[in-house]
Each structure stands twice: as structure tokens, then as C-alpha cells.
């Protein structure tokens, strides 16, 4: 077992290491003993050593003259009661809040802070001026009231002799020129615009509503349908009935083993068995596994515009550019917002009902929007839409769709809006109108093209190019096109069909615009396709009476000031 050697201090080794040459610090390099062994000066010489006193003097010359306050800086010490003052604080002059506010920023050397302080002082000056004007106005009103009271007290006897004349004079003095002057002063002081007194057309002028018995089913036809299913050896029965007054739908519950591929054969067999020329099977109904037999009624109940207006959200009188066209088969109002619908195509040769579609859309917009929010332009050959040009909502006079420069003014408006929106750094009309003043706001422009086929067949490439550009760029800029294509023999280009997002198509055996229009009946029966849904809705168009249109136009023209 070895013992651990005791560690002791070795004095000789310590002296030997002390005698060795130590590392020379930068201040000792230039000593005279090492002058002979000094190496050659290199190409790059490091920066000269700066002693601490030099650093302090350099900092004292470059540091800011005023110390900026921080969050931890104590601006004012708390006053402590002393033996000299006791609990009573020394009296100090009261200072204004503005001086205290400006004192916070007196040590800041910043352009931004100076600008903020300047804006604050200017705002305070404006408030002071406004207070002075308000005080002057109150004194004027008080003096005017005092003068009027003194006149009334002094001429009590004359008022008793001539009460009617004095009443008229008093009314004129209060509601006449003096009140107008006061309104002008108030408008100049507040800087607010006092707009015109515009009233919306009332619901009472929309005529009569739809007949109340339009929901009653045809019980005889329901029994015939049950008997037809028994004869055809198909397990099915009628369980419910819905109608919109034009078309009735019988909901039939079938056996689950019934195949969907047999629906066309069932349709043909039911037509023959029930002796019906028009029968459409809806399979399956939304939310169920049943089918619906849609049959046109023998005694239809017309859908009036008042029914569409009262049963939809249009009666709330909102400024949302919503329109109602008709009713679906399950008795629901078909309404949509113009900003979402974009551009609308009315397809099919149904002379009366395609006009009703346009009338329903325009009347829905006119009922809830004034001339500052809505403008209407007409491109048609005949004068069936000239009534819309007599109201203040008219954008321009009627133009012909066959004219070479038919859409030139609308294209110019499109380009002007595009430049204005780009300068305002916005992309749609809603954002633009929320940023600019009332006088600079843009109205929503609706362009009615009565005959789209005439515009396409006229060999007018400029008009077609202008139409395509409006369809591509017009929706966010607040320009919407409603095109009526009456000639079904003329095909529409696929590009135009894609740009016209909302489609209302009547009976068409070739299904050129919307698939499924070959199963419709001629007349008041259409399929509607909207951008937010790829499944068409079968709707019945509402009718518009000429008396109702004229009453709405008269109210807009003569009752708004």
C-alpha cells in the first residue's frame, strides 16, 4: 500500500517561472529594450489603442445635451409634509391641462412627436372656435326669443283683434327666413350635409296580393295518382301536396327497392295513365328519399308583385340591392342580391314572361333605392321600357342594340370607375363608397339589353368586345348587365354563357343555356341557376300590373323633393 505524497510548495520552480519572459501588453510593446528586435511594420495596422479617459471625453462630446425621460424616470417628487410647512401644502399656481400635456414632450427631439403636438394644438384651436360660434348662436337665439316675447307682451290687444293675421306672421317669423339662416349657420358650424326629404313608395300602391286558396290540392287528381300506381304495380302513395299557385307538386313515397333508372319509364307510363300532357318527376326531393310529381294547375292563381314583396325580405326596406323574381314549386320566394348575381341572362322565347322578369327586378330595386344609389340604362329597339327613363334613376336615353356605338358610353363609365377605384386603392364599389364623400359616391348601374341576339348577329365586333369587357370587369365596379336572349335559334358563345353567371331559362327543347329546360311547360315556367348553387330551381314568374308600375313611377317622380 503506497502512501500519497504530500503536496508542498516548491519555491525553486516558482522562482524559475517568475524569471521567464512574460507576455508583453500593448502598452509595453514600445519599450526601449525591445527596439532592436522590433519587426517590420505590416501592410495593415490595427486601430490605435484608446485609453479610457479618451473614451470618456469622446462620449461627453457626442452625448445628447438633454436626457430623455424613460418609463422609470420620476418627473416630479411627491410632496412630503415637513416641519416647516406642516400638513399644509404650499400654494402653487394652477396650470392648464394643455401645458401639462405639452410639457411631456418638451425634451423629445423628434419630428413625429412635434407633428403630433402640432396636430393636437390645431385641433384644440378648432374646438375653441366651434365653442365660440356655438356660444354666439345661443346668445343670438336668446336675444331673438327675448325680443319675440317682448313683442308678444306689447301687442296683446292687437293679437286679440286680429288673431289669424298675427298667427300667420308668427309662423312666418319662426319657420321662414330666420330658420333658414339658423340652419345655414348650423350646417357651417357642424360641416354636415342636410339631404333631401326622399320617401320610398309604400306597399299599399302595389295592388292586390295572390288569391288565398292557391294552396288547396286537387283531391281527385291525388286519388287518380294512387290508382295509377296500383295499376302499374308500383308500391307508392301520395303523402303531401305543395303549390305556388301555378304548379302543384304531389310528394309520393315509393318502395326503397325502386330503382332510379326506372324514373323515365315511370314518367311516360304516368302521363299515359293520367292523360297529362305535362308531367315532371323530381327525384329525389331535397332532404327526403321520396319523389315529386310536378303538374301545372288547370286554374292557376297568378303571383302578383305585392306577394313577392311582402313575403320576402324586401319589406324590411334595406339598401342591399335585393330583387324577387317569382316563387319556387315548394312555395318559397326566389330572391337574390344583385351584387352576388352579377350579370343575368334571360333565355327563351316567351314574350310576356321575360318582360315580367325584368319588371320584377327593376321594381324591387326602385322600391328600396333612390336615384343616388341606383341608375338604369336601356338598350332596346322598341319603347316597352321607356317608363323607366322618366324617373330620376335614368342614366341616359334609350340606345339601339344594333348601333355600332351602343355600349360605348358604358365602356367609358367602366374605364373611369376602374381608374378611380385604383387611385382609391379599393377593388369594389362598396369599399369605394365607404371611403369617399357623399358627392363622390358611385351609383350601381343596371344595363338592360332587350335583344342580345340582335347585338350578336349585327356583325358589330366593337359592341361585342365592349360587352365582353363589361361582363368581365363590371361586377366589382357596380355595373350589371341584364340580357334578354329571345331568339333560341341563335347560339350563344360559351364565353358569354360563363360570364353571365345567373341564368333564368324558359322552355327550350335543345337545352342550349340550362340543362332540363326541355321538361318545362311553355309559358310561366322557368329554371333559375345562381352562382352559389349548381342545381337549378324551378320557378314561376310573378306578374306586374301596369297600374302598379305607373303608381310607383308617379310616387318617385312627384313625391320626392
Write up this protein.
The chain is α/β, with parallel strands linked by helices and 561 residues long. It has helices at residues 11-19, 52-62, 97-103, 111-154, 156-161, 163-175, 177-190, 219-231, 263-274, 305-311, 338-341, 351-368, 408-423, 429-435, 452-457, 461-477, 494-499, 546-558, and strands at residues 236-243, 247-254, 280-282, 291-296, 322-328, 333-337, 344-347, 374-379, 444-449, 479-485, 502-505, 526-529, 537-541. The chain has a nine-stranded mixed beta sheet. Strands 1-2-4-3 form a four-stranded antiparallel beta sheet. Helix 4 (111-154) runs antiparallel to helix 7 (177-190) and helix 13 runs parallel beside helix 16 (461-477). Residues 27-32 and 162-176 have low confidence and may be disordered.
Quick recap of the structure?
With 561 residues, the chain is α/β, with parallel strands linked by helices. It is 40% helix and 13% strand. Residues 27-32 and 162-176 have low confidence and may be disordered.
Keywords:
alpha/beta; four-stranded antiparallel sheet; single chain; 561 residues
> Helicity range of the residues?
25-40%
**Could you tell me the strand content as a percent range?**
5-15%
Largest sheet: 9 strands, mixed
Separation of the first and last Cα atoms = 123 Å
* Record field, number of beta strands: 13
Rg, Cα atoms, Å: 44 Å
Q: What is the overall shape? A: extended
Mean residue pLDDT: 81
What's the number of helices? 18
Biggest sheet, strands in spatial order? 6-5-13-12-11-7-10-9-8
Low-pLDDT residue spans = 27-32, 162-176
The helix/strand class is alpha/beta
Amino acid at each position: 500500500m503506497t502512501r500519497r505524497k504530500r503536496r508542498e510548495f516548491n519555491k525553486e520552480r516558482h522562482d524559475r517561472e517568475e524569471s521567464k519572459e512574460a507576455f508583453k501588453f500593448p502598452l509595453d510593446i514600445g519599450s526601449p529594450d525591445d527596439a532592436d528586435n522590433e519587426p517590420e511594420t505590416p501592410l495593415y495596422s490595427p486601430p490605435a489603442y484608446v485609453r479610457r479617459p479618451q473614451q470618456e471625453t469622446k462620449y461627453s462630446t457626442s452625448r445628447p445635451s438633454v436626457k430623455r425621460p424613460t418609463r422609470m424616470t420620476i418627473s416630479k417628487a411627491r410632496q412630503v409634509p415637513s416641519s416647516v410647512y406642516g400638513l399644509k401644502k404650499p400654494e402653487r399656481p394652477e396650470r392648464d391641462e394643455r401645458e401639462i400635456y405639452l410639457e411631456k414632450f418638451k425634451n423629445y427631439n423628434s419630428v413625429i412627436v412635434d407633428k403630433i403636438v402640432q396636430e393636437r394644438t390645431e385641433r384644440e384651436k378648432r374646438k375653441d372656435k366651434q365653442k365660440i360660434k356655438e356660444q354666439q348662436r345661443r346668445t343670438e337665439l336668446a336675444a331673438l326669443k327675448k325680443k319675440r316675447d317682448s313683442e308678444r307682451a306689447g301687442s296683446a290687444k292687437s293679437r286679440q283683434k286680429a288673431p289669424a293675421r298675427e298667427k300667420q306672421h308668427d309662423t312666418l317669423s319662426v319657420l321662414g327666413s330666420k330658420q333658414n339662416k339658423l340652419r345655414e349657420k348650423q350646417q357651417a358650424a357642424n360641416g354636415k350635409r342636410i339631404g333631401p326629404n326622399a320617401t320610398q313608395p309604400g306597399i299599399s300602391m302595389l295592388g292586390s296580393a295572390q288569391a288565398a286558396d292557391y294552396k288547396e290540392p286537387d283531391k281527385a287528381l291525388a286519388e287518380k295518382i294512387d290508382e295509377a300506381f296500383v295499376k302499374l304495380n308500383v308500391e307508392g302513395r301520395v303523402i303531401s301536396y305543395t303549390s305556388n299557385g301555378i304548379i302543384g307538386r304531389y310528394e309520393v313515397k315509393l318502395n326503397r327497392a325502386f330503382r332510379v333508372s326506372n324514373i323515365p319509364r315511370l314518367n311516360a307510363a304516368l302521363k299515359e295513365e293520367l292523360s297529362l300532357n305535362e308531367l315532371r318527376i323530381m327525384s329525389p326531393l331535397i332532404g327526403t328519399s321520396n319523389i315529386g310529381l310536378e303538374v301545372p294547375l288547370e286554374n292557376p292563381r297568378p303571383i302578383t308583385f305585392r306577394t313577392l314583396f311582402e313575403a320576402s325580405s324586401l319589406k324590411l326596406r334595406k339598401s342591399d340591392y335585393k330583387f324577387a323574381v317569382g316563387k319556387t314549386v315548394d312555395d318559397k320566394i326566389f330572391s337574390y342580391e344583385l351584387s352576388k348575381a352579377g350579370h343575368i341572362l334571360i333565355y327563351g322565347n316567351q314574350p310576356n314572361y321575360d318582360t315580367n322578369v325584368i319588371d320584377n327586378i327593376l321594381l324591387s330595386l326602385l322600391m328600396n333605392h333612390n336615384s343616388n344609389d341606383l341608375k338604369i340604362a336601356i338598350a332596346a329597339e322598341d319603347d316597352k321600357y321607356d317608363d323607366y327613363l322618366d324617373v330620376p334613376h335614368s342614366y341616359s336615353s334609350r340606345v339601339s342594340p344594333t348601333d355600332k356605338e351602343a355600349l360605348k358610353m358604358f365602356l367609358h363609365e367602366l374605364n373611369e370607375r376602374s381608374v378611380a377605384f385604383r387611385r382609391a386603392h379599393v377593388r369594389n364599389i362598396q369599399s369605394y363608397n365607404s371611403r369617399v364623400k357623399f358627392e363622390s359616391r358611385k351609383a350601381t348601374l343596371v344595363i338592360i339589353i332587350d335583344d342580345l341576339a340582335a347585338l350578336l348577329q349585327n356583325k358589330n365586333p366593337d359592341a361585342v368586345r365592349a360587352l365582353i369587357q363589361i361582363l368581365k370587369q363590371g361586377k366589382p365596379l357596380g355595373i350589371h348587365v341584364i340580357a334578354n336572349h329571345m331568339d333560341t335559334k341563335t347560339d350563344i358563345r360559351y364565353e358569354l354563357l360563363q360570364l353571365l353567371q345567373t341564368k333564368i331559362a324558359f322552355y327550350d327543347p335543345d337545352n342550349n343555356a340550362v340543362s332540363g329546360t326541355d321538361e318545362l311547360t311553355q309559358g310561366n315556367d322557368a329554371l333559375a341557376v345562381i352562382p352559389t348553387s349548381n342545381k337549378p330551381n324551378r320557378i314561376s314568374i310573378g306578374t306586374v300590373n301596369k297600374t302598379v308600375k305607373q303608381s310607383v313611377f308617379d310616387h318617385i317622380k312627384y313625391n320626392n323633393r
